[in-house]
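I am still getting used to backbone structure tokens and would like to learn alongside you. Please make up or recall a protein chain and show it to me in full. Would you write everything just below, so we can both look at the same thing?
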Amino acid sequence: MTSQVTTTELIARFQQWLEAAEKTEINDPTAMSLATVDANGMPSVRMVLLKHADVEGFVFYTNLGSQKAHELTTNPQVALCFHWKSLQRQVRVQGHALPVSDAEADAYFASRARDSRIGAWASKQSQPMQGRFELEKRVAEKALRFNIGTIPRPSFWSGFRVVPSAIEFWEAKPFRLHDRTRYVLQRDHDWQGTPLFP
């Protein structure tokens, strides 16, 4: 039996699950797998950290020279998966990725720890390196460059917002009779939920 919910209701449910995970997960409750597809149609998946979620979508940040950023530029269709083992819950998201605004990226970058900001400047993410020393040398150079001054956001570092078109909630139940509901965005901007066999 299908049901209709609003975006606000759907994101509120996700936020409730995330808040519960923040109390029970040992490490990184905001970790999510991000699946992209390259220009040849080859899928690629990696873990990233969710930095913000609201009715507009799910936000993460990255080096714009990274493999994921290149793939998102070629094909913005993506999938996310949150798995909270301690709660036996999972949320899957399908949608498309859009760049965040410069103002949003600047604000988040400024909130990061100083070492993380220096690391963003130092890393040529996804590019080959000669060895660990090359990275450590670049970190030392950037730390010296910025000294105790302000560290601005590099032009090659920003974020993406995954605007969902489908969201699926899964929760473990006894005897593998799990609860699983898939919500698909409708033309009227509400979501139609359909229970699925687990």
